[in-house]
Amino acid sequence: MRRNEAPTLTDVALRAGVNKITASVVLSGGRSNTRVSEATRERIIAAAAELRYEPSAIARSLRRRETQAIGFYMGGYIDTRSLFLADVVSGIQQACEQQRRDFLMHGTFRGDSTDEIYTELVNGKVDGLILHAFSDSALAPRLAASHLPVIAITDPIAGLPSICVDDVAGGRLQAEYLAQSGHRHVLYGVCPYRLSSTVRRYEAFCAAAYALGMTVTAGAARTNDDVVSGVERHYLEIAPGKRPTAAVCWNDVFAYQMIEHFRSAGVRVPEDLAVVGFDGSTSPIPPAYRLTTIRAPWRQMARDAVALVLSRHEGAAIPDETILPVEFIRGDTA
């Protein structure tokens, strides 16, 4: 063994005066037809300790046919400044720690093909995958047909088991609260991305709002590239006496953006416009005001996703869709 090189199984075998197979049987702790005396076993263990030999994690994975790792992929860069993603990543990490599993986050560069991404995800680095992707993702059918246990989170995806929050109940709770507060015309900031969860909550809100006698004016919320959204511009173009008296936003980030934009334009929240969000993630820095919102248990969803993917890895049957309850939180904005 040369200096600065990690000791190998061959080095241990030479130090102990045995062949490589005997050393492997002892150090792997596996079952074998090779019989090893107690004296030889102790000599091999002592040699490994003297050399500070550590068995290869890759070799162990090949023997066990598992990696002891769970993967997470969301189709792009993972920006943990997002409170939603911070909750998801923290939840997966906590559950992996409890299950004594490693946690591997997969990122991709723009322009990677579906084939390249698929190969990266199923190449044997993880025992199972937690997926957050668009409902019409070209990758999802490939993963659904693969050998890899995959659980979709937040947004149900055809062909894959999923765990989500109750978007339908959340949309209904928003409508019921605003109706009880006397609002009859509501502005709705619709998600600009292809996410089935946000379609569910919007459709549920509209169904409940119409049943309660409210009018809904909808428009696209901001994307990351927008300074102001079309729905915000539309509101300010309406004469003050005819404007909606409440606004519902597809998530909390857009709700905060809308509030700041409208306040800068002289619109008082909640006196002129009540604003309700959806997420309920808490920031370590207390906000200047408490947003009225729907609290979704994103961290619990992520923890449960780890348990589901491990169950599937072990061959257990799991539900096609698991839905977690949400909670209405009354704040200062509605």
Q: What can be said about this structure in brief?
A:
It contains 12 helices and 12 strands. It is α/β, with parallel strands linked by helices.
Structure commentary:
- This protein is α/β, with parallel strands linked by helices and 334 residues long.
- The chain folds into 3 domains: 9-55, 434 Repressor (Amino-terminal Domain); 69-165 and 299-324, Rossmann fold; 167-295, Response regulator (Rossmann fold, 3-Layer(aba) Sandwich), CATH 3.40.50.
- The protein is 41% helix and 15% strand.
- It has 12 helices and 12 strands.
- It has helices spanning 9-16, 20-28, 38-51, 57-64, 83-98, 114-121, 139-144, 167-180, 196-211, 230-237, 252-264, 298-313, and strands at residues 69-73, 102-106, 128-131, 150-153, 162-165, 185-190, 215-220, 246-249, 274-276, 293-295, 321-324, 327-329.
- The strands form 3 sheets. It has a 6-stranded parallel β-sheet, with helices on one face. Strands 7-6-8-9 form a 4-stranded parallel β-sheet, sandwiched between helices.
- Helix 11 links the parallel strand 8 (246-249) and strand 9 (274-276).
- It is elongated.
